[in-house]
């Protein structure tokens, strides 16, 4: 990361104190290193402003704080540190040239993300389930320039959540694993659930690809890009046929695609 405090401040806020080079972005003082920019996120349980002094003592190049919350320097004063983190990730996204694959859905997001990362050589994926308004920007910000692809897991708790994250992600491929009843109480009803997940597809450009379950009529919608459907033992662009499980719960199946078929044996249950 070849950023400096003065350059970042010009995009997200006001620099108070001396300029310095930035190595990476952090929101956790337990892992802050020399040259990091610490963003003081205000969460439900913790307020990052409490740890500003700790970050600077650990060698941080500077801190990003809500205006009026800290006198420490060097600092960048912003209106909202959560929004500032997103804006930093959006700046980083502009620098990234590799394909970006975004994954959402009611279930299976983390497994799908991990399997994609294993299948795509040289890819960078979000660690663990970094799928919220803090984890997604951090995933983008930590992506190495040398990565051949970026796989991002994206969670949603209602309308507008995925849309809010889109400036930091701007996917080339958007995957919705399914629309289930899990967490339906969070969304209120099935239509709101479908609309909320569809926001990931609305983030695609004209050359983008949506990967969608073929058996989900609520996702039969138009968008600027193209669509690839998938199914298990059903009609779709890509499907898994003759699925069997061994004694360890590991699946084997025939993968049927427009470009040919292949036998697949998974190494994990």
Could you provide a short overview of the structure?
By secondary structure, the protein is α/β, with parallel strands linked by helices. The protein has eight helices and 16 strands.
Main-sheet strand order equals 9-10-8-11-12-13-14-15-16
**What's the shape?**
elongated
**Uncertain spans:** none
In percent terms, what proportion of residues is strand?
25-35%
Q: Give the tally of β-strands.
A: 16
Report the order of strands and helices.
EHEEEEHEEHEHEHEHEHHEEEEE
CATH class descriptor name of the largest domain: Alpha Beta
Through-space gap between termini: 38 Å
Helix content: 25-40%
Question: What is the architecture of the largest domain at the second tier of CATH?
Answer: 3-Layer(aba) Sandwich
Largest sheet: 9 strands, mixed
Overall pLDDT level? 95
**Integer count of domains:** 3
Determine the CATH topology of the largest domain: UDP-N-acetylmuramoyl-L-alanine:D-glutamate ligase
The number of helical elements comes to: 8
CATH superfamily caption of the largest domain = Mur-like, catalytic domain
Structural class: alpha/beta
């Amino acid at each position: 990361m070849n950023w400096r405090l003065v350059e970042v401040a010009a995009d997200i806020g006001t620099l108070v104190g001396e300029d310095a080079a930035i190595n990476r972005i952090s929101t956790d003082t337990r892992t802050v290193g020399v040259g990091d920019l610490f963003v003081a996120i205000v969460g439900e349980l913790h307020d990052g402003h409490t740890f500003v002094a700790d970050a600077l003592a650990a060698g941080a190049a500077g801190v990003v704080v809500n205006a009026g919350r800290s006198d420490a320097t060097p600092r960048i004063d912003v209106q909202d540190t959560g929004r500032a983190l997103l804006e930093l990730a959006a700046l980083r996204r502009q620098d990234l040239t590799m394909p970006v694959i975004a994954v959402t859905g009611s279930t299976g997001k983390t497994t799908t993300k991990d399997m994609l990362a294993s299948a795509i050589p040289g890819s960078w994926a979000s660690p663990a389930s970094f799928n919220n308004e803090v984890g997604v920007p951090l995933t983008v910000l930590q992506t190495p320039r040398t990565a051949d692809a970026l796989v991002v897991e994206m969670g949603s708790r209602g309308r507008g959540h995925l849309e809010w994250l889109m400036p930091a992600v701007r996917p080339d491929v958007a995957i919705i694993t399914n629309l289930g009843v899990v967490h339906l109480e969070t969304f209120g009803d099935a239509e709101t659930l479908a609309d909320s997940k569809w926001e990931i597809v609305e983030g695609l450009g004209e050359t983008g690809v949506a990967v969608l379950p073929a058996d989900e009529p609520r996702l039969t919608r138009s968008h600027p890009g193209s669509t690839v459907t998938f199914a298990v033992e059903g009609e779709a662009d890509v499907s898994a046929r003759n699925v069997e499980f061994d004694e360890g719960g590991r699946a084997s199946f025939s993968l049927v695609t427009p470009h040919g078929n292949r036998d697949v044996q998974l190494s994990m249950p």
